[in-house]
Amino acid sequence: MKSMLSKSKNDFVILTCKAYEQGNAALQGLQAYLVNLGFKARLEAWQKLDFARLDEKSVLLPLAVWDYSLDFKAFLSFLKTCEQKKIYMQNELSLIKTNLNKIYLKSLQDNALSLPKSLFLLEDEKLFWQEQIQAFKQNTGLKELIIKPLIGQSGYKVKRLTELKELDKEYENGALVQEFISGISEFGELCLIFFKAEFCYAIKREVPKGEFRANSAYRVIIKPCENVPKEALNLALKAVQSLAKSSLYARVDLFYDGKNFLINELELIEPSLYFDFCENSYKSFVKALLERLN
Using N-to-C axis directions, what is the helix angle for 281-293 and 25-36, rounded to 10°? Predict the structure, then answer.
């Protein structure tokens, strides 16, 4: 395999962020795997990317742009520069742009895929947010709600919705209000990883007692998941087929409410792909990457 792959002259740049310029151990492992196969590969923060070093052989992998939502205008400008300079990126720019805003979940909802009951609070409708939330609660009968930014990462500003005042200031780009899924305390979150729209492996994130945010920032316990329920796999596959058919990588995050699996997120920009939890993950990812390039 090495002799065949090393003929490629691609230069891979794994995009990171200011706080983690060298990514994490899993992404350093991916870099080492690519280098071992004979490729040029480096980790570099998107804010510091030297476009002068890039050419038609360069491939950007935005797997660790973990802060883009904190400087969103700058990130949009960065993407525009990549587009203008015709820099090759995987996932492709169109998928990344769609996935920046959680409004994409409405497309899944409209396609009759199972999500938690959801209300999308749009930026240009802030005057009506309180009224919309009250109507949502009345129509659904829900007593416990959570709120999260439409543009956000890593559990930032995800919280139980207990106060309706000044939400328009806290969630400048809009917000997503959803039912609180109590089953997460018992079941956790199931993350299914796809390469080239084909299922590869899964992991489970167990949350600490009293926590409902299944994110590494909140002390989750991560474990491989060998036996993925058929219902979960079918739902995740439908999500990928619906919005990410052309993706190099995708991660579908699912909750279980005690009766059914529900889509929490379809991650197409900078999801952890948990390379270090699957023995052949690097090999599978790089194989899919090179097939996409060819």
Answer: 60
